[in-house]
Amino acid sequence: MTGRKRLWGWLADAALILYFVFALFPIAWMAILSLKPADQLFSTYFSFTPTLDAYRTVLGDSEGIPFVRFFVNSLVVSVGAVALSLVVGLPAAYASARWRFKGSENLMFTLLSFRFAPELTVIIPLFVLYQKLGLFDTYVGMVWVLQLITLPLIVWIMRSYFADLTPELEQAALLDGYTRKQAFFRVALPLVKPGIAAVSLLAFIFAWNNFVFPLILTSSQAQTVTVGALSFLGGDRPKYNLTAAAALVSVVPPLLLALTIQRYLVRGLSFGAVKS
Amino acid sequence: MPPTTSLKETDHGAASHEEGTRQVRAVPRWRRGLRPYLLIVPALLLTGGILYPFGLGLYYTLFDFSASKPQPDMVGFENYRTVFTQEAFWNSAWVTTLYAVGAAAAETVLGVGVALLLHRSTRVGRVLEKILILPLMIAPVIAAIMWKLMLQPSVGVVNHLLEPFGLGGVQWTNTPTGALLSSIAVDVWVYTPFVAVLALAGLRSLPVSPFEAAAVDGAGWWYTFRRLTLPMLWPYVLVAVIFRFMDSLKVFDIIYALTEGGPGDSTVVLQIRAYLEAIRFQRYSFGISYTVVLWAVVYLAATVLVRRLGKIQRRAAEVTE
Amino acid sequence: MSVSDTLNASARPAAIALRGIHKAYGRRTALDGLELDVAEGEFFCLLGPSGAGKTTTLKTVAGLEQPDSGTVELDGTDMAGVEPYDRGVAMCFESYALYPHRSAYDNLASPLRSPRHRLPASEARDRVGAIAELLGISALLDRPVGALSNGQRQRIALGRVLVRPARAFLLDEPLSHLDAKLRQSMRAELKAIGAVRRTTTLYVTHDSVEALALGDRIGVIRDGRIVQSGTREEIWYRPRDTEVARAFGRPRINLLPGTITDDGRFCAVDGAFELPVAARTAAGTEVLAGVRPRDLALGGEGHELTGTVYVTEVLGRAVEVTVRLGTQHVSLVVPRADATHLRPDDPVRLTVRPENLLLFEADRPERPGRRIGQ
What we know:
heterotrimer, A: mainly alpha, 2 domains, 74% helix, C: alpha+beta, Rossmann fold, CATH 2.40.50.140, six-stranded antiparallel β-sheet, disordered N terminus, Sugar ABC transporter permease (chain B), MetI-like_sf (chain B), transport (chain B), membrane (chain B), transmembrane helix (chain B)
């Protein structure tokens, strides 16, 4: 009985390890590819002479692809989009968690529908519109369109955090002699700070990882790493080691941030539908 | 007694009279009602900024607007008629359905499986759980690039690893079926952790008492799983499935980077078709019509699935009781 | 009656006056035409079961809830539209509502840092120190509130109310989460605090013992209305209906069903006994005769009843004796010495003074029976 049980335990662990090999191998393989010298790309698999040439090339912009600029662009538009969504979304999330008022649910569900709308429905008209307005290939244009991703996320998640907070704390502050604004800033806001941090990072990751917006709405000035990494695959002779290096560099920020917000991830990924 | 001295004492009877004489300011009812609206005004403006192009897009679909015709004419519903009579549309709809159903099903089975294995909380499991979400945090387009390099038929590492088993030389993305399956595989690679994370949260929040009761009754693993775990876990899983199914209906990044819709038309899902029409061929109105149709499909799917979710949540609540 | 009459007649307006307050949440009515007067400096207990509208009443006074109709007056001033921070009232929440991210000291000092009640830092420190001393929590001030016990939190919450000047204290079940022993000692302490003695206090509780012990006056609230308000004596001796009568006193008041006879006496349903009541009601009316267990005696002066002992139960120094009168049971509380010889089925002679008898209409499904005699 116990022997059979232990066997099942081993099999279960083995299955788990098998899945994680599947999950992690591509990342490991990218690391290997990115360290290969160009002349060993197609002639070797696991034994080669490692070199950082690919990284030097990618980060040195020497292939005519300004990757560092793309990286900075990603940073600017993602941070900008999250900041705008926070400034605009926090009051809205607070209002809809604290008051019942006409139109509140309409706004919330309109925002939720953005999460599931096919991006191109909005982007193609924006592509035309941005050309007219001069927003094509600009930071402002990107920050605007990224609201489609960051705003619903931030409003929905923060609403669930505010709703979890008993209104009596703010009421106590009102009776202590504070105004509503002070009650919000002194009591409500500090208490949802972990939520704000987590949702901001998650929104940043999603903004960073977006591909279709910069693909269509930027060309060179405001292009981001996701589009940039793909461009290493273009051209007559694809440079696999450069592509791998670019891919790895572009996933470093989201991966690092993701590991710091694991605890809060479930609520964020499910738009507040599941809390852990 | 002056108020300052009275405050220093434990009692402050005098100060309380001070309260009564203070001038108070009344806020009229309508201004109080206005408060939440003031807070959502910025969000409303921004939402409008997103709804405007959407509305503009809908409007465009009634014209024959394209790069070659910047002064478009009103054509009514002609664009939609063309969409629905085009064989390319039905092909895309079919491919999209296969992709969405295949990816969502595979991710659900695999994700719930991984969650169940991780829920055992063995030493191996606890270590692996920390890195579970890594693929999910990688941009799908980057994931597709990674897999594209690995699936390269002649020099890719996957065929190299399969060679000893006599399976080398598979034309992964170069055959219609292979291309679709490869795309689904990338989707599964990225999003299985999504299902697993939600299912694991669900497993961890299940009440303990029904399981204890079942153990006391001597119920077997399979019976417990079928009769208790699954029905109670199902609402969590279904949230994940809804997200995954609706997201894969509008897949774009993975296919764009992995196959660009090829070979032939074999992986041209609806958003790729819309992209090709609107951006490649610059037939804006026609391309948007495609996305509007897709939007309607997603909306319908969402309504049906969310209603189903409500039903299943009620049933799960009954099991818990 | 008499106290509130003199209050209304006096020149000074009530410290807290609620007039015809209606408040509904969706389809559920919380307050249904609530009327309430609390006099300057009075300690007023609002007693009622959960869901009766007690907390809503407090929050309406505080301005945290807006009534759908009706007016709230503080010291004679209509408070419609006046913000909570402009009303000058302090409130202790049932949940305590302490700021979990702050230390005990910061919680206590919070009002003194607000724009309304700001004191210079050094004065605030002295004041918080004095309040902490008064409540015996000086040693806890540096701790985060998460590290405090329920009793300690309760004191912090009370301290946050007492630390600042207020024209009224609103206390929402402040003792309900404490264990029985602590509750009893805090009850005594609360009334002894000078600020509480002097300041108008509206105190909400579901515990009738607490209400009787603390309240200068008591208001009984049910289904969003004040059923009766008055001094403890009025509530005790002149309950408005059977439910108020049942709410006070343990063991509960005996309510014996019967009818009024032609000569105006009370006759039990089974005809086993009669009681001399001053009935102002027609013969044949179905009624309930009320007598409190402590108003029945074994022997002594008064109207006599004979029955048999059913069961006895020791309650500390007294004994609760349940006596069978025909098919009905009545309970009485007698000194232990008088009951030691009693065994089940022993015949006993009970006496009751006619002035201690209450007469109610029979309870109806839609409302408890009103008091119609004495």
